[in-house]
Each structure stands twice: as structure tokens, then as C-alpha cells.
Specification:
about 15% strand, alpha/beta, nuclease, 3'-5'_exonuclease_dom
Length: about 220
């Protein structure tokens, strides 16, 4: 995917919709994980990964004062694979070491709420890198969402369906649309990180934090 050289900023939603569609991972490269046995079979594979694209999904709340019981889905992605974990107490316990691992980067957008949710569940998430404020070089001083990020970095249209995003993520069997949507969020976040890193567009503070994590990971290996 090409990187845009000249764009009128800020770009509009109308402009974004005119772009070629973002190419998500193929269905065979998206793994839906429902059991602890599936998790354990992936243990060595996941332990060897240094950088994950990351996101979560939760069943939406509609009533005033209603508390979320999420996350109901936790997504991790590599350049070639997305892992969609349907959360249960056992699976959350399995993922806790990854979420708390200071030498495994988890990169995504809008992660502040995820950190709060995990803390409430006794998980102190580490090495979580929020890319939302990494677009000052494009003229954006406030937070940028993943759709705008993909348009800026790759000139692609990253479709976001409100119907899917507000669907019931706690169901036992996710729909193909939910699976596609969830995988894309984590996969696209990873691609954005790689592009920002390669183009040296990350803030010095964030880059310093990332280098410390990656160097620690290399030393540990």
C-alpha cells in the first residue's frame, strides 16, 4: 500500500470513502479462540511475538448506570495472523501474562479505556502503546481514529460499521462480519505502527518508550 504524499488536511469522511478499500487479512488467517485448550496450543507461538496489534470488543451498554461486563473479545494480530480470544475467566487468566508483559508491545488506538477495564479485573497492562496522538506530523494535534490513520498512512478506506461495532460481542458464535471487523481493528493498528515507526513519525517520547521495550525484549531473548 502506498503512502500519501500530498493531502489537504484535515481529510474528510467523504474523501476517505472515495479511497480503495483496506485489504484485511484473509479468513483463513483469522483464528477464533474459544477454549483454554486452544490457548495452550498457541502458547509458544504467542510467547515468541514481540509486537501485537491490539484491540478489544465489549457488548454495548444502553441503560443509564449499566456497567459493562467486558471485554468479551480480545484481539491480537501479527502481520500474518489475527487471534480473536472470546473471553472467559480461564482465557483471561491465560492472556494476563501477555497483557502484563513489559517486553511485548501491544499497539492500538484509544487504549485508555482498555487499561481501566483490565485494572478492574486485576490486570496491570504494560507496554500498551496508544497511537491516537501520533499524527502531529500530518497536522493533527488531537486524537486520530484508526479510519483516519489508515487513510493518512496508506490512502485506503477502512470501513467502520456502527451496526457491527455495537453488536453483541458476548455471543457464543461470532458472525463472519464480527470476525472480519474485529480482526481488521487489530491488524490495521499493527500496520499503522509499523508505518509510523519506519517513517520516524512517532513522537520522541513514544519512540524512547518503544525502544526501551524492544531492547529489553531482545536482551531477554
Amino acid at each position: 500500500m502506498d503512502t500519501p504524499q500530498h493531502l489537504a488536511l484535515p481529510i474528510t469522511k467523504e474523501y476517505i470513502r472515495t479511497l480503495p478499500v483496506f485489504p484485511n487479512l484473509a479468513a483463513e488467517n483469522i483464528l477464533v479462540i474459544q477454549t483454554l485448550e486452544q490457548c495452550l496450543a498457541l502458547q509458544a507461538e504467542l510467547d515468541a511475538i514481540r509486537i501485537f496489534g491490539f484491540d478489544t470488543e465489549s457488548k454495548p451498554t444502553f441503560k443509564v448506570g449499566e456497567k459493562s461486563t467486558g471485554p468479551h473479545l480480545i484481539q491480537l494480530a501479527t502481520p500474518n495472523q489475527a487471534y480473536l480470544f472470546q473471553v472467559s475467566p480461564e482465557i483471561l487468566a491465560f492472556l494476563k501474562p501477555i497483557l502484563e508483559n513489559e517486553q511485548q508491545l501491544k499497539v492500538g488506538f484509544g487504549l485508555k479505556n482498555d487499561t481501566h477495564i483490565f485494572r478492574a479485573k486485576g490486570i496491570s497492562s504494560n507496554a500498551m502503546i496508544d497511537l491516537s496522538k501520533s499524527f502531529s506530523s500530518f497536522g493533527y494535534r488531537s486524537q486520530v481514529g484508526i479510519q483516519t490513520a489508515i487513510a493518512l498512512l496508506f490512502q485506503r478506506y477502512f470501513a467502520k460499521s456502527k451496526k457491527i461495532s455495537t453488536s453483541n460481542w458476548s455471543v457464543k458464535h461470532l458472525s463472519p462480519q464480527q470476525i472480519h471487523y474485529a480482526a481488521a481493528d487489530a491488524y490495521a493498528a499493527l500496520l499503522c505502527f509499523e508505518q509510523l515507526y519506519q517513517q520516524q513519525l512517532l513522537t520522541p517520547q513514544l519512540l524512547q518508550q518503544i525502544m526501551k521495550i524492544l531492547e529489553g525484549s531482545a536482551d531477554k531473548a
